[in-house]
Design goal:
The protein contains 17 helices and 11 strands. The protein is an alpha/beta fold.
């Protein structure tokens, strides 16, 4: 690659674009040129490194932070300093348009810069949210290897929002509190049968079996999670109480089989069009008088897949993920035959959970890079921090919803919330 010179018009565009950015910034270019913005006496909050001229070309022509993200993952763009400031700065650069007085000259000078050698997106095969494609999507995310997730999750491998009594509770304690709270909401009793839809690495099932004496069945689409669960079940002597199957929720029994049903972090993978089938299958396999606890991330706006966060998650983390606002989710549940008993907002808890995960992963960077490589490590670190910001800024939400069958007309629950929350 030839060492193109930074055009004056692009330098001026950066100065104009960043003059209202609240933090001091240092930008280093590919020919050892440096641009400092903000208070000159301050240590920059973040240092940017444009290692490839095409990064600036992409910013001018596409104004898409995802292109900037891809450049970061491929080593054409880098930063030092606070990752949150870097995320906000990238969005600031990408979303600022060109003033009319800058436009033509800046565009023309940008054309002289080489393009980034970005790879085209690889389209997934099959119909969205078909059984085959859903299994492929789940395996894409969860089959990186147990060793990777063990680096930064709690010992029970709970990969969902924890519940914090205060912000400084250790993650392990907050996850244990979440599991026990779920059991109490479901009013689990010894000998009852529990279905865990999308059971992950089985933390909920093991907790319920050991502390509440239930008999449970978990289903997942990840073969590696099935293998992990079988090992843990054997190690902890729970073979007579719980089992985990490789099974799609659409293949669940259609007759009342379980006393209680729980689904934690599963509904995000279902898709709005599949909500009727999802809620219907959960309803049909629940015995009369039972309870269903549905725990999942929601959008604060209608999901159309076009926002930065949506495209990043869909491209790198959760293929075919689909966040839906709470209202249509509850409407679909009610139309199938569920009565909404309790809705619990966990948004601040997920921000704390994600920051704990990000800190844990950063502390194990060397081990993580050895397992999954530098690029995937960067993707995951950016994903965790970006999602934490998303929950803090109310761009995403998460709710636990307790439901019962509408056909169970007689009320069999406590009259006040603390009857099942304490």
């Amino acid at each position: 690659m030839g060492q193109a010179t930074l055009p004056i018009a692009l330098r001026n565009w950066l100065i104009t674009t960043l003059q209202d950015f609240p933090n001091s910034v240092e930008i280093n270019f590919w020919k050892d040129q440096t641009l400092k913005l903000g208070e000159k006496t301050e240590e920059p909050s973040v240092k940017l490194f444009f290692c490839h001229p095409g990064v600036l070309r992409s910013l001018v022509f596409q104004r898409d932070p995802l292109v900037l993200t891809e450049a970061y993952f491929n080593g054409w763009f880098d930063f030092q300093g606070d990752i949150e400031t870097a995320v906000q700065l990238g969005k600031h650069l990408a979303y600022r348009g060109l003033k009319q007085s800058q436009g033509i000259k800046t565009w023309l000078q940008s054309l002289k810069l080489p393009r980034l050698p970005l790879k085209p997106n690889v389209e997934q095969e099959g119909e969205v949210h078909s059984k085959e494609r859903d299994r492929a999507a789940i395996q894409h995310h969860y089959d990186l290897g147990d060793e990777f997730y063990q680096l930064w999750l709690d010992p029970e491998m709970v990969y969902s929002c924890a519940h914090f009594e205060h912000p400084y509770v250790p993650l392990n304690e907050a996850q244990a509190h979440k599991l026990d709270l779920a059991c109490r909401k479901l009013k689990l009793e010894a000998g009852e049968t529990l279905l865990d839809i999308g059971c992950g690495w089985g933390g909920m099932l093991r907790w319920a079996a050991k502390n509440y004496g239930i008999k449970g069945c978990g289903i997942t689409l990840s073969e590696k999670q099935v293998e992990y669960n079988q090992k843990r079940i054997h190690q902890e002597g729970l073979e007579d109480q719980i089992e985990v199957k490789l099974l799609d929720y659409r293949d669940l029994p259609t007759t009342p089989t379980f006393d209680k049903v729980v689904s934690i972090g599963m509904v995000e993978h279902v898709g709005l069009k599949q909500y009727p089938a999802y809620f219907d299958h959960a309803l049909k396999c629940l015995k009369p008088g039972g309870l269903f606890l549905n725990h999942g991330i929601t959008s604060t706006d209608a999901w159309n897949g076009s926002s930065l966060g949506e495209r990043f998650i869909n491209h790198y983390i959760f293929p075919d993920g689909e966040l839906v606002p709470l209202t249509p989710m509850l409407r679909e549940a009610e139309e199938v035959g569920w009565e909404i008993v309790d809705v619990d907002n966990w948004r601040p808890h997920y921000a704390l959970t994600l920051r704990s995960w990000a800190d844990n992963l950063a502390s194990k960077k060397a081990e993580a890079v050895k397992l999954i490589g530098e690029k995937l490590y960067k993707i995951w670190q950016l994903y965790l921090i970006g999602c934490a910001i998303g929950f803090e800024e109310n761009q995403m939400a998460i709710y636990q919803t307790l439901m019962r069958r509408q056909s169970d007309q007689k009320w069999n629950l406590p009259l006040i919330r603390k009857g099942w929350l304490v």
